[in-house]
Design goal:
Layout lengths: L7 H11 L10 E6 L2 E9 L2 E6 L4 E5 L5 E6 L4 E2 L1
Antiparallel strand pairs: 1-2, 2-3, 3-4, 4-5, 5-6
């Protein structure tokens, strides 16, 4: 199934599981605003930061050190 047909939280949970995370408890959630416009959300799950940029149609997963672990293009299948 491609990313476009899944709800955003299902895509995040599936990707985190694929990265080996057993605990999918959501920490904090922050709305991302740029020049007064909503551009996405940032979620924290344990040591992983998830950034959903609605303006780009991507979800990026970052490790504790800020390294990119995975990127999902919502208009395509999984990338990176």
């Amino acid at each position: 199934m491609d990313a476009q047909s899944l709800p955003i939280h299902d895509i995040i949970a599936d990707t985190l599981s694929g990265l080996g995370m057993a605990d999918l408890s959501l920490g904090t959630t922050v709305a991302l605003i740029h020049d007064g416009y909503y551009v996405g959300r940032r979620f924290h799950y344990g040591g992983v930061q998830v950034v959903w940029l609605t303006t780009e149609g991507t979800i990026r997963f970052y490790g504790e050190g800020g390294q990119l672990l995975k990127a999902v293009d919502l208009g395509q299948k999984e990338a990176a």
